[in-house]
Design goal:
Blueprint lengths: L1 E6 L2 E6 L8 E3 L13 E5 L2 E7 L2 E2 L12 E3 L11 E3 L6 E4 L19 E5 L4 E10 L4 E5 L5 E2 L5 E4 L6 E9 L3 E9 L4 E9 L6 H26 L5 H12 L1 H10 L7
Antiparallel strand pairs: 1-2, 3-8, 4-5, 4-9, 5-6, 7-8, 10-11, 11-15, 12-13, 12-16, 14-15, 16-17
Helix pairs in contact: 1-2, 2-3
Protein name: Butyrophilin subfamily 3 member A2-like Ig-C domain-containing protein
Main location: membrane
Pfam families: C2-set_3
Length: 266
């Protein structure tokens, strides 16, 4: 997060690091005399975050988006301290109404959602870690149970044109039978979030289960056909499938196979 503050006729920029959604003090200071009447305005783009004039806050001039979120340190105004206490931080800028020069708008850094870690369907065991809407641009790292870094594909970033936050995705191929961690880190503001997943050994056997299931279905099918021929019944495809499903209780059988891989049918 960057906020500007003024010194007389000049303007400077100071960088403030904070997490979006928390409370922060945005510095803004100007050398003034105690008898001078201050006119201070804080803005975000075209929205007014706070206005102080004629010795008090101009509450009616504040945009609805900033109601009950902003305040000045009133006892320090006489010393030129126009710093703003801002809750649920976003991007704002400071402007002294007595000075015509207006600084560039600042930015807030520190947006971070909870990352997700899932197994990607397909050959082998591939993990995919995703982090949505992070600012600044984060780094994604895979770790094994011992905390060692795992080789992974290059991270894929997409920056939203409106919010300017980053969505990142990264994949890594691992061996089953272990715990794995995805770590998303913003070194600039020293913020880290992690998510863990357990990949059991039996996640490597679905192909064997499918082969066994196919053999069992084939044998049961042969048995049903043989039974029909001996009974003299006419054989139709519909009746054949119906009886196969009845004998296998196919839905329950599939659920059992899936649960062996620690997943659930939704």
């Amino acid at each position: 997060m960057r906020c500007c503050y003024l010194f007389d006729s000049g303007a400077s920029t100071v960088k403030i690091l904070a997490v979006v959604g928390q409370t922060v003090i945005l510095p803004c200071r100007k050398q003034v005399r105690e008898e001078n009447v201050l006119h201070v305005e804080w803005k975000k783009d075209n929205d007014t975050a706070f206005v102080y004039k004629d010795g008090c806050e101009a509450f009616g001039d504040k945009s609805d988006a900033f109601l009950y979120r902003t305040q000045l340190i009133l006892q320090e105004l006489k010393d030129g301290n126009m710093s703003l206490r801002l809750s649920d931080v976003r991007a704002v800028r400071c402007r002294d109404l007595d000075v015509q020069q207006e600084p560039d708008p600042g930015r807030l850094h520190g947006a971070a959602s909870e990352p997700t870690l899932d197994v990607v369907p397909g050959k082998g065991v591939t993990l995919q870690c995703e982090a949505a809407c992070w600012v600044p641009k984060p780094d994604v790292t895979f770790l094994d149970a011992q905390g060692n870094i795992i080789d992974a594909e290059a991270s894929k970033y997409h920056q939203d044109t409106r919010s300017r936050c980053y969505n990142v995705t990264r994949r890594a191929t691992v061996q089953a039978g272990n715990y794995f961690t995805c770590r998303v880190n913003q070194s600039e503001i020293n913020q880290t979030k992690t998510v863990k997943i357990h990949v059991p050994d039996n996640c490597t056997i679905p192909r064997t289960v499918a082969i066994i299931a196919a053999v069992i279905m084939f044998l049961i099918g042969i048995g049903i056909v043989y039974q029909w021929r001996n009974s003299g019944e006419s054989i139709t495809l519909f009746l054949f499938i119906k009886r196969v499903c009845f004998h296998l209780q196919i839905r329950k059988f599939i659920q059992i196979c899936v649960e062996m891989c620690s997943f659930y049918i939704i």
